[in-house]
Amino acid sequence: MKKIIVAGSLHYDIMLSAHHRPEKGETVMGSDCHYKFGGKGGNQAIAAARAGSPVRFIGAVGDDAQGEFLLAALRDAEVETDAVAILPGVASGMSVAISDAEGDYGAVVVSNANRMLDVTALAEDVWRDAGWLILQNEVPSGINIALAQLAKQQGIPVCINAAPARDIEPELQACIQLLIVNAVEARDMCQVDVTDLASAGAAAQKLAQTYPQVIVTAGEQGLAICELNQLPHTLAAVPVQLVSTHGAGDCFVGVLSQALLTGCSLSAAAEKANIAAAEHVSRPLQA
User: Fold this and answer.
1) Where is each Carbohydrate kinase PfkB domain found (predicted)?
2) Which 3 state secondary structure label does DSSP give 4?
3) Considering the domain boundaries, does residue 226 fall inside one?
4) At what angle do helices 40-50 and 248-261 cross, to 10 degrees?
5) pLDDT at residue 103, rounded to an integer
6) Which residues pair with residue 97 across a beta bridge?
7) Which structural domain, as residue segments, surrounds residue 58?
8) ∠ at Cα 20 (114, 8), nearest 5°?
9) Given 18, 188, 247, 286, which residue has the most CB atoms within 10 angstroms?
10) How far apart are CA 165 and CA 54, in angstroms?
11) pLDDT in 10s for each residue of the chain, 287 residues
């Protein structure tokens, strides 16, 4: 069976809960704190594996307790870790996220080992049985470019979840089959303000002039899909009682990639991922 290759970030997450997120100069008393596996790459890999896909992860951790924790979490989810480098004397990636009473959150990420992956050191068989390569923007652009070019040489389609927002270099753009962005990222990339499903569709259509397949997620509104030379179509969000949006996008990408691997159309895969993301945001955060 084909595998999903996820390449990207691994973070040891410190999760805080508070009534609201602090303003500049403000100290806020929190109500809860716990520690969890994170990083957009790692979260997407585990989501794809839990959805039923074989997954191999490409990334890097430090030789510290946090790195051991991150590797154990991947292995517990049956994600292959033979392509995860363990870097001596380097700290593993980490983040601190604050969730407020409304279920929204803000985070600070320190990349550490994630910035130091040596693509040239990867084993030649890392692409064996690969069906998709999934990338994000939490590693340096040079790493993404090198990986995407290698995948393209192997005939492997490349998906990038372009988060956090930053410019996509022409060398990387030329390798991308599927672009996934949220409302803020879409606005930054195509200058269309995404405030509802109609504007999400407009953004997706504009981005599809550059990328063969595009998904623009619009939070509680839903999402828009557009493919090259086609009109966009939208999918409303599944109504749920929101607990926390943390990790919803990563859940979406992981489930989407698993569905695409099984032969689903982009629309059918997006529908499955939309349902999975809705279930995710309505569950309490897990340690």
Assistant:
1) 1-283
2) strand
3) no
4) 50
5) 75
6) 15, 107
7) 3-15+33-176+238-282
8) 15
9) 247
10) 28
11) 799 999 999 999 998 999 998 888 999 898 888 899 999 999 999 999 999 999 999 999 999 999 999 999 999 999 999 999 999 999 999 998 888 888 777 888 899 999 999 999 999 899 999 999 999 999 999 999 999 999 999 999 999 999 988 999 999 999 999 999 999 999 999 999 999 999 999 999 999 999 999 999 998 889 999 999 899 999 988 876 666 666 788 999 999 999 999 999 999 999 999 998 888 766 665 54
For residue 243, the one-letter residue type is: V
Residue keyed to tokens 């753009």: 173
CB within 8 A of 153, min separation 6: which ones? none
Residues 6+ apart with CB under 8 A from 39: 8, 9, 10, 11, 13, 59, 70, 93, 95, 114, 138
| Cβ neighbours for 256, distance < 8 A, ≥ 6 positions apart | 180, 215, 269, 270, 272, 273
Kindly state whether residue 113 falls inside one of the protein's structural domains: yes
Is the whole model's pTM more than 0.85, yes or no?
Answer: yes
What gap in Å lies between CA 59 and CA 71, rounded to an integer?
10
The number of residues making up the chain comes to: 287
> Are the CB atoms for 42 and 73 separated by under 8 Å?
yes
Which residues are CB-contacts of 213 (< 8 A; sequence separation ≥ 6)? Answer: 177, 178, 179, 225, 226, 227, 228, 266
The type of residue at 233 is H
**Which two structure tokens, joined as six digits, stand for 195?**
């405030």
Q: Which pair of tokens denotes residue 224?
A: 């828009």
Q: What is the DSSP-derived secondary structure letter of residue 63? A: S
**In this structure, what CATH number is given to the domain that contains residue 263?**
3.40.1190.20
Residue 268: count of CB within 10 angstroms of its CB: 13
Are 70 and 10 within 8 A, CB to CB? yes
Using CA atoms, how far apart are residues 250 and 244, in angstroms rounded to an integer? 13
